Amino acid sequence: MSNATDIAAEAPAPRRRFSLHVLGPVLALIALIALGASLNSNFLGYGNVTNVLARSSFIGIIAVGMTFVITAGGIDLSVGSMAAFVAGVMIMSMNALVPVLGIGVALVLAGMGVALIAGLAAGLLNGVLIAKVRIEAFIVTLGAMGIYRSLVTWLADGGTLSLNFEARGFYRPVYYDGILGVTWPIIVFALVAILGELAMRHTPFGRHCAALGANEQVARYSAVKVDRLRMATYVVLGLLVGLATIMYVPRLGSASGSTGVLWELEAIAAVIIGGTVLKGGYGRVWGTVVGVLILSLIDNILNLASIVSPYLNGAIQGVIVILAVVLQREGKSTD
Amino acid sequence: MSNATDIAAEAPAPRRRFSLHVLGPVLALIALIALGASLNSNFLGYGNVTNVLARSSFIGIIAVGMTFVITAGGIDLSVGSMAAFVAGVMIMSMNALVPVLGIGVALVLAGMGVALIAGLAAGLLNGVLIAKVRIEAFIVTLGAMGIYRSLVTWLADGGTLSLNFEARGFYRPVYYDGILGVTWPIIVFALVAILGELAMRHTPFGRHCAALGANEQVARYSAVKVDRLRMATYVVLGLLVGLATIMYVPRLGSASGSTGVLWELEAIAAVIIGGTVLKGGYGRVWGTVVGVLILSLIDNILNLASIVSPYLNGAIQGVIVILAVVLQREGKSTD
Amino acid sequence: MPQGTSVLEGRGIIRRFGPIQVLHGVDFALNAGEVHALIGENGAGKSTMMKILGGYLSPSEGELLLDGAPVRFTDQRQAEDAGILMIHQEFNLALQLSVEENIFLGRELRRGPFLDKAAMRDAARDLLARLDCHVDPRTRIRDLSVPNRQMVEIARALGRRARVLIMDEPTAVLTNRETDTLLTQIDRLRENGTAILYTSHKLDEIRRIADRVTVLRDGTQVLSREAEGFTEDQMAEAMVGRELSDLFPAKAVPHDEVVLEVDGLTVPGRVRDASFTLRRGEVLGFAGLVGAGRTELMEGIVGLRPSTGRVRVMGKVLKPGSVLAAREAGLVYLTEDRKEKGLLLGKNLTQNLTLLALDRFGHIRIDKPAEDRALSEAITDFDIRVKDRAMLAGSLSGGNQQKLLLAKTMLAEPEIVIIDEPTRGIDIGTKQQIYEFIAALAAAGKSVIVVSSELPEVIGLASRVIVMGRGHIAGELTGTDITEDAILRRAMGVTDDREEISA
Amino acid sequence: QDESYTIGVAIPSATHGFMGGLNYHAQAAIERLEATYPQLDFVLATAGDAGKMVNDIEDMVATRDIDALVVLPFESEPLTSPVQAVKDAGIWVTVVDRGLSVPGIEDLYVAGDNTGFGRVAGEYFAETLKEGDNIVVLRGIPTTLDNERVDAFSAAIEGSGINVLDMQHGNWNRDDAFNVMQDFLSKYDDIDAVWAADDDMAIGVLEAIAQAGRDDEMWVVGGAGMKEIIKRIMDGDPQLPVNVTYPPAQIATAIELTALGLVSATPVSGRFIIGSQRVTPDNAAQFYFPDSPF
Ligand SMILES: Nc1ncnc2c1ncn2[C@@H]1O[C@H](COP(=O)(O)OP(=O)(O)OP(=O)(O)O)[C@@H](O)[C@H]1O
Ligand SMILES: Nc1ncnc2c1ncn2[C@@H]1O[C@H](COP(=O)(O)OP(=O)(O)OP(=O)(O)O)[C@@H](O)[C@H]1O
Ligand SMILES: [Mg+2]
Ligand SMILES: [Mg+2]
Description:
heterotetramer, A: mainly alpha, two-stranded antiparallel ribbon, 73% helix, globular, disordered N terminus, disordered C terminus, D: alpha/beta, 6-stranded parallel β-sheet, 4-stranded parallel β-sheet, elongated, binds adenosine-5'-triphosphate, binds magnesium ion
């Protein structure tokens, strides 16, 4: 797939190609922002911007991890239900710990610890099955998707797992408050994005992921520990799912079988809209962030504008997603 | 990456590899059948076998087409909502034609024609965007998925599109009757599977699909019309979606926003369980058929046995899907 | 020169692939400061032996000694840690990554936890400069030509400070000038005490740099001696097991009929305004330096690259942009990039062989017995050494892959065949067969264009030579005018003052 | 009689709060009945779409030889002919909640009142709000059922002068409702009340309102009687003045009646419509089931 066009590629004057490839998603984002601003004057207001950014943060944090998995030639369909499962486990542990730790920082920290450990364990399981047992990632994570979704429904007895009421009150500011008017989810998302971008472009880890995705054989021959690396990408993703959950739970204080449905598709779509190559070998974290924002903005704008029929929201979403990628097509074809 | 195997591949003693790789999915299928038979004496009865085969036919027919798309290095996430959309269009046209054609063979044939044309058009649209406009298949079909789903909801005004009651009565036998006790969906599925298998293994089309998926450059240099071929795989899939819809509509006589939800994942899973390589270059239709049967049987067996909690069905499904692929792992890794 | 114990030694090395044995107990030693050449026919087991020494494959039997002590490399990383590096016959580069990223893959320089990109870029540039290769380290490999890729591959090995450097046909894709640079570097390494294992089918190189020569035939060592006084003819004879007569057959005399007419062909950014004709029964050579645009011109002609201008085959205008149309008109092109564009390495021999001419085996149903027969014929006609007909193309030795590619191209029964680098990686004995084959084609009334960077090949085969330089046709030579000197002068534009093509 | 019977129960899977409650009550009823009547055997199948539900029913008939079927149709239209086929095979059919598109197939019909669900809510809005007051509406997943509720609601507020600013789908989901409500709050400066059509969505809506600090400005009416919401009504939360019932326990009623019909001679056929009631702080206690997951 990837070697489609190199022949046809006219002397890839690197500058020119660069620009469209890079600008594509950014242009789409700007166009959306302009559209939103023209539709509603509150669109660029502090409240709306904060809302959109904060609610992007779950998918965003996960999508950053997904960028590494995809760059390294993998895929993870389980993240949405993994998030639901981790949230469920976290809520149950916190509820169970209330009598022991009381309501307070200790409880919240314990909950966070549980979430990170659960995420890590889930990621590790995926990683081991894929990298060591060598089962197709698509199947492992499709199976895991069913398993976690089903487990959380079972844990919740078909209903909703709710965090202890006082604990919720105490934990709530983690979603709604922040520093200097920037709420915590936004801060955490920004940090994860920056660290992710650094890791992708400025550390051996990122480079090795790209090499693994481009050509596993070459990576192996270059003394890259391929299996461990592949496993690491899933573990990192699992950890980030845990982190996303830590931001998610204080928002509504509950988890159920319908938590995180389709997050996986949204995260993957964001990664690809951002310019990462689905078959691996090339990834960029900042692009993913742009992709996540594009997806959130589409929803936001559809709610702010009054479209002909809300039934058509999905169609408009679909068209915009395709258009956002058309913009970077030119650049894409030289990959 | 096609060039994975050349250097390291320690001479995959072809015989041995063959056996596990081939037997994997078949073994899983046999194990499931044995399990089912041991759980319930009616399992192998005519009624149950007919039910399971007939209901596999929709996903089955689609999965055969999906095998070609994936073998040629593509993916199609839109088939489920495309089926819903085609069913919606078919039902609306048939309802509109009742006054003109009356209830009868002509009406049914007209409906079938509409379904095939709609499927073909939808497939062609995907194909053109992917092969000619060169947008990432994942994004095109993800967008299309949203668009068709939303369109059918809109056509149905949020509810259900129902086939005219008498027309349904007349059309119904297409799902429930057959010849010599074999119902039509089973016959059509079998025909599609046989033709698909022949096309994959014995025609230039199948060969070219595998070549395209293995290395697009080489295919291009070998006088394969790469764009046209890629487009053709999506068109074939679209047509088969139309055909599946023709079998589906007489069963339930209606279409709505929830018709065909997750069919795409099921079809892709069946293809991969069957041993086709997700990144393209190698596909086998009979494997896909086995994969489809495995997936249907899991549901069927879960209904036979009374499991601890129905909430855990998804988990059991997930585990079995992973296990089915573990069986062919050995073979897989040498591909 | 050999002194003390060997750095790396293999004793009684046996290697089997499944039931097939390809090495039958080879003993082999590498000494510090010595260039040891390993030569042999295609499929003799050279690459296999080298991979075993480099830690990429483990021997089925026999042992490896490092500085006299037995070792067992469980993975290639250990070999690399011991200072053993290898340049593969087939590229070992990640196409999507940049030159610098490839050179430093697996041993990136860092500052703290971060990559020191500037340092790596500079180091990469230096390494490439030592090889006289001036590509930007930020370029992606996929945007490089085949020779430049090879230079990157070499630079990568040079950058790793090897005690033992194993080079598997590093010059197969290089032209003379680049080969010279490489050989100079090898001399330098030798002086610094590196042990070098070298293989090539270009025997003059072996003569120039080898201190010792070992000859493999069918996986057995037939000879190992000082290079001193070992002539090229003797080498060839030791390899092939018979004496080689004249390398080039007599040149065919072309008919008058023009079969191919290229008129003002321009491949944007690569080739400008190329016009030439080809006659029936003619062998037309295309010479030029690397990057002259020969490949691009040929790809433009057969429709693999967008181009303007007109191509006529047998008087009929060829539909542009369609490889299929070209093939149906009787014109086919054999690519120089065997691995990326020529063969499906993960597929078996039959599927590769018939891919180009698949419609000859049935439009609806593929006639498998006929395919099978075609494979048998190809194996005999082109002397492809296969141990198992069901094997994957990627498991063939490099030279045999080239033969398979040739067979694949000829299966389309072309009237006109363009062969880009026909004998890349082919052993001397087979080379002769291929030359005879080309001459026979011409004699049978077919027409052949040979694009080659090996001047002797062009000179020896072609009755007419077109020289390209910097994207345009720089001159044409016929008959006795075809000399190395004349070609090179035109290629470098010495006698030609036309303006350069602007990219 | 010591003859044994098998009863098949086919319901949608627990994808949101109400269905979760329904699943809970179905399982609880089955456990209870299995304990009481050893001669009864149950097959419970949950489905995520209409096709799967038809599959489940086919399996029950073909392999489990059911004597009675209790079904809550995922959708009315597609389930009609398959259930008809079950009926034609001489099996007792109980339909719950969503009627089939052809009347008269089922032996017993137990249902909540979707029209009533919308109407009762609408009536409260009409009574409480003044002319010119603004409301927003969060609908469920686009389905016939959702249409019925919303139509009834709209009909009930018609003529009251209440201004419906916007309607969007919150898909009976907390997160979606939260997002939609956040955007409504950005979009409209003056909202007096919200109809959330489902208590899951009400939770998300309340949270979004709290975040915007506009708690005093508007109240919210959900529906279906989730226990947290009922609790808050009991406690007199001014933001949650009332609720409208749509009891998930109707499935238990249906299963119990069906079982009773099989094991005893009691005539149970007919229609049982469990009307939607308005829950107010005064009567909330009687709708509060702390053990239910919903
Ligand atoms: N992975 C493999 N599986 C099966 N056979 C293999 C494999 N690798 C190499 N062989 C066989 O081993 C033999 C030796 O191959 P090798 O590549 O060592 O030859 P070579 O001497 O390097 O030839 P060349 O000059 O053409 O490069 C060949 O017959 C080849 O087909
Ligand atoms: N795939 C490619 N992508 C981008 N540039 C390329 C590619 N292949 C070749 N080039 C560039 O095109 C120019 C000419 O190509 P090339 O070197 O193949 O010409 P040539 O005359 O055929 O020489 P040779 O065949 O000996 O390499 C060179 O500058 C080379 O770097
Ligand atoms: Mg070799
Ligand atoms: Mg060339």
